Amino acid sequence: MEISLRARVRAGDPDAFRQLFDEHASVVHRHAVRMTGDWVMGDDIVSLTFLEAWRLRERVLPGEDGLRPWLLGIATNVARNTGRAARRHRAALAKVPPPDPVPDFADEVTQRLADTEELAAAQRALSRLRRGEREVFTLCVWEGMDAATAAEALGVAVGTVRARLSRARKRLRKLTELELELERDGRTGGARGTEGGTGQSGVQRLAAIGQIPGSRHQAARSTQETKR
Amino acid sequence: MNTNPRRRDQPVDHQDLAELLPAPGRPVLAQDRHRVLREHLMEHITHETAREQSGATNTSPATSSGTSPVTPARPRPRRRLVLVAAPLALAVVVGLGAVAVDSARDGKHGTAAAGVSAGDHLKATQLLDQIALAAAERPAVTVRDDQFIYTKSQGSSDELGWPATPPQDTKGLVTAPVAYQGTVRQEQWDSVDGKRDGLRKSVGLSSTGEPDPSHKDVMTMHGAGYLTFRQLQALPTDPDALLKKLSNDADVTESRRTEIVVENVGAILDDATLLPDLSAALYRAVAELPGVRVVDHVKDAAGREGIGLTFDGAPTGYTWVFDSSSLVYLGTTDAALLEVGVAEKKGEAPATTSSS
């Protein structure tokens, strides 16, 4: 009889974790980057999520359901407090080499630039929400979870998920038009406020694709600066 | 009007929500990174497994901060005696005297918590009763539809959102805002009837508490936020009726009811401080819930110490904080309410305030 993946994860079977990683790392990564708007951070959150999954493996309940909600719940917690997770797994994280500064293929660079634009706009909107709303929004809307699954992933009641979605909806209404307007003004050199900008952006763009080692300002890395 | 954020008979339509935000990009984990990260995970697992098998002390995964609802048995929070100053300025004084309080910063998602003892719950109920009385005595405000409700809050950027005006590059393209990790002070103007756009100004605070102009944001708030002030005024001020409205789904399991009500009350508590009858009713409604505990000597997000209330199922450490003597609502451990009032115009300081 075949033993379920849940049972094997719970039992600490290394092969089960390999399978878990292969099946879900890309989704965890996507969720992490969308939550944080930061590519480098995304890599760290993937590592930390699976290290946490390993640490917390005995909490997996028996059953046949997929483990994606469990992993995305952990990823959300990690993103919420990257510093703490990074401290806990400092040794393991320090061994992971930073991403290659320049992706291998030009296509990838182009794709990343395009994505970074989109991520930036989405991130700006997302940053207007309170934490709870942000987490529910990314899980339900961007990862397509239903309210019950998101509730399970976050360890909150279904009603809480619905209430947060509802607040997010009201907060974000019309925001898209606002963003587009803003962007249009920006592109045409329109009369936008003078705040922000200040030479920051070019650096930020490059940082997002990892070309400025010094910009690795995030907490996850700050714990292991000596390594580099 | 309807306080139920979503009725059960309305299907959740995520598509319309998705359209409220720009597309979130399609970040892809490159194959080589996938491999590198996986091999490091496997190395860690192999290493730990080997260590465990060789009889190292730590044989079971540590506990804490999980997302699973199943929490292994944990030691009960330390119990200690604390003296609670009997609040002044109260018409009816119910002596609190010595109160046994769980050191509840331990928090977690309280779903697995054994709950609150009868004694603890009684103390919470008594405190809420006094808070309700104090709230009822605050002056009521009269507002016009064309005015704005002003709130000034302070908390972590994680809670309140980043003050991030997106930088633009030389071509005027908007790029990702810089994540800001510090404390944020935020002023917000919400239209009384919800028919006008609101405004939010936020600024990061330096370690010494000074506004840091390199982290600031001014934005128009489209939509009414959660409930408009007019909608708040229309809420029932009978605690039972209010509790029913705040419970969302009729069939919500009792164990999750506290969490949902606290979530919903938390979203309106700031503005409700301008409505004495509603505030009092909110606190009396909360007093009817199980899983409410008093937390003594707790600080709000601006560092002001007071007496707190926390709840089963609330996020870790989440506590409502009240001034120990006046019992005025100070805010929460996530976001302190520094000031609330009614402003003639958005962007302007309020004409009448009740600062806390």
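Confidence is low (pLDDT under 50) at residues 187-228 of chain A.
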